[in-house]
Structure formats: structure tokens, C-alpha cells
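Q: What structure does this chain adopt?
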Amino acid sequence: MNNWINNPQRFRVGVEILLFTLLTIGLTTENPIELVARNEATPTGPKPAMGWSSDWALGCEIITDDEMYWEGEQMARRGLVEAGYTTLIFECAWEIGYEDDWSPKASVVSSQNLSKAAFPNGIHSFIEWIKPLGINVGVGTWGGKQLCLRDPQPSSELGMEAPRDLNRYIQSIAEAGVVYLIHRPCDMATPEFLQNPEKAHELDSRYVAMQEAIQNTRSSLFYATGQWGSSPLAQQKKANSWRVSDEQLPTWDSFIRTLNGVVPYAHQARPGAYNDLGFLRLARFRKMQLTMTEKRTMFSFWAAAKSPLIFSDDMERMDQDTIEMLKNRRVIAVNQDDLGKSITLRRRYPNHIDIWTGPMKDGSTVAIIVNWSGEDIKDIPLDDMGFSSARLQDVWSGIDIGHKEKVYQSVIPTHGSLFLKLTETKPSPPKAWTRFTIDTAEVVAPAKVAMLGTVKVATLIAPEGQGSVVWNDVPGGGTTDVVISLDYINAGASESYKDHGNLNFRRAVIVVNDDPNLHFPIHFPVTGVTWADIYPGFLASIKLPNKTNRVRIQGLDQWAPDFVSLSVEKPAAQAA
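A:
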């Protein structure tokens, strides 16, 4: 496969996007976390969608109205509808063309008897049939030719032509009573496709045309899209939700891939516009299965990230413990909070824990702490959440943990998590930084300096220590850990859900004073679609034992990210 990620001539696009990024956050001390906290929008638009999709549960070959009704009945019978999961989605296999007025034509269900359609009596008839259960209906469409197929096909032209009257198409769906539309003209959005400006323009133009049709018809459809590409049209994104990575599978690695995929976009979530982390895959699938602990971590993260909560497993395969988990009213309340702001990554301790936090409408803060290692007592610094003290509550149980100062200790199981609500908070003292740019760095070959607009970056830092970026005279002189902040670029996204070697992050190591005992591994999440998307303010901890130190960043078993700057926290006395 032609992989742009490790190509020395990586395509660098979006200078206009780069300049916008730099003007807004790239050259400030603010990172996306702080941008979330300050921009409190007035709640408008729909809440994250909640429901069930036929996609993985029933596939895309044959779907009958009877099957779909049965799934809806089970959702109602087992209390999921009452909990808020009210949208039943015909993901695919329901349309084969258009009527004379450009409304969708329902597909034939069985190639054997050709006797019944997915909507044999029309979409509206099915909606009226299932409405007494408290269930609404959503549909999925490509809206034209499929641009990037998931499975190899003899032709890349698979799919119907786009409706000539897109306004009428949308109007007919809305008039039938459909409330949710998922639109994925690119079913397998590889980095090579998303980073290519011409291909990305073609994809993004499809999304823009669809959202304009929804606006033109004044439809209240919840509009969900796949991943947007790198074209300038992406700045016109007005969808209610958009995918941030490829399909979710019921595996821990898949969760890691998705978690890293949302890092650069988490701060964009707002009322009526959300990052879609993909379907909740909770039942066993072939040989893949999550533990109950992993399911709970995944569900907690989806909820706090304000992702749509849409699961896609056959209801018959859903065990009762999983059903009860999905119905937890306190977790759902976080997801449906009026403020509509996602958690963002605060700190990452490699092979230990992640700490994510986000604001709530009532002034509280929610936090997710994910355990990457074995079961152990974890020390969770409140400063990593932005506070010196706070009252903690367990979101799952509602139990008041009490008032904590500086550090909270808790046992977290392997692949488990804490889901906390923080109130009565006291902010941490503000940090001050000493910043080092590439202008003051030594870039060791084969790495080199490249220009992005007017900004210098250290790029092509190869695996196994081949090339590095080095800063000298970095202040230190203590025995405790020092917090550093890195501005970097990593567009080395996973090729697909089958790419098990890339979980949307890159490993690098910081070596202090070229001392083999002062090696600090860092795991850098992806930063966006292109190699022009800078992520500012990624925090890590290292030791700087000398008054002045030499700090080197080099690759481990893969290419390192590109680096823009290193900042070192000033001691409290200097900061004051």
C-alpha cells in the first residue's frame, strides 16, 4: 500500500488552515482544553442521538421490516427506549433508487422471492407502526456513488447516482417522519484519501450539498456524517455529528484507536454538533469480545465525549448486565448535558493512565481516568484536572467520595476507568512557561527543518533513534518531575479498523543529558487530518537534574511526530 505516513515527501496541505490554527491557538499558551473551558455556548440544537443501528447487527444484504420491528420491540421491552434510546436506524440495504419525484425507492429484501421490501408499505407506514413503542426512525444513505469502499470491489463506481433533486429527496424523507440521517459517501476513509485535497474536496462537497439540502428544506433531521477530509470545504461543517475514526470493533485496541482519534477534535464539540466515536459494539463478534470492565470504560468515555450513543448489536445477543449498564441515568445525563462540551485530554502517562476532563452546564467538571496498565492503586493529581482541591462524586453510583486535596488515590482494574464529577473546586495556580522553538534547536540528520507557512518544524525523525531534535540550556536543577509542554504534528492516522499496528498515536522518547537512565517515553495522539495541523500544549513530565540540561526527542520503533516547540514550566517562585 502506498502509505503517505512514512513517505519522506509527505504531502503538506492546508496552509490557509495552518495560518488560522496559528492565529487562534498555535502561538498562544492555551491548548484545546482551555479553549473548551472559555467558550461556553448558549445551548442550541439537538442533543447527541441515542439509539440502535442495523449496520453490524443485521448487515447490509437483507433487512426486513419485521426484523427491525422485533429489534425495536426488544429495546422497548428491556427498558432502553425509556432510558432514551429512541432512534431505530436502517443503516443500509433499504434503498435501490428513486421514484419519479426523487424520493427514495425502498429495496427488495429477498433475492429469492422478491416479495417484500424493507419498507413494503412505505417509510411512513413503518414509522406509524413502530411509533407506539416510543421509537423514531433513522436511515443511512451514500447519497450517490460510493467514493471509497470498505471491501475490494470490481468497480469503484458501486452505488446509485446522486438524486438530481437533493432538496426533494430530503424533503420526502423528512415528510415521512424520519428524524435521523447518516450519510457516508466514503465508507473507508483512509489517510491517503482524506489527506489528498482533490479527493477530500469531492468527499466534503457531498457533505456540504447534503447539509445545504437539509437547511433549504428547513428539516429538523439530525444529520450525521462520516469523516471529513482536508479540503477548505471542511470549514463549512454544520453537521450534527461527524465520525472521527474508522469503525469501532469490540476490542480494547479498537477503543484505543478511537480515543486517540478524537483528541484533536474534542474541543470542537458544542450543542448540536458532536464528535461521533462510532457505534458502541458491546456483544461478542466472531472471536472479539470486550470484558464488562472494558465495556464500562468505553461507555463512560462515549458519554463524557458527548458522542452519539448508538449501539449496533443484535438485541438477542445483548446480555442483561450490558443492558443495565446502558441504562445508567447518571451516565446518560452527562452525555445529554445542555452545555454540550466534550471531555478533552489533560494528561497522558504512558502505560499508566489518561486523564480527561470537561465542563458541565451546572458549573461542575466531569473526569474520565483510563487505566492502561494492570490493576493497581493509582495516584491521580487533581492539578492534572486543573484544580488544587475538589469534592468528588462517582458518576456511576452517585456516591459522594468527599473533599480531596492535591491527590486522589483509587484502585482501578485493568482496562478500567474512573468516572468522576467534581464540584466545590479550587483552581490550580496558573503555570508559566519558558518556550524553545525550532530556531533554538539542533536538528540532527536525517531529520531536518521544514517550513509550514512562517513556522519552522523538525520533521522526518526516523525510527530507532535515527535523527532527533535537541534543545540545549534547558533550565532545571531539582529532583522532582518537571512539566513540559510540546507543540507537535502527527497526521499518521490509522489506515482502517484492520490496521492493528497503528492505534492513532506515535511513540517517541525524550532523553535528558544523553543519560540512559533519563529516558522518558511519550505517546503522542494524532493531531488532525494533515501534516499542517498543530496540536498545542501536550503535557508530559520529565526530570531536569542539572541547572542547564540537554533535551533530545527521538523516535522509538516508528517515525516520531514533527515538533514545533518545547516549553518548560517555570518554578512557582519564578512564575509568581
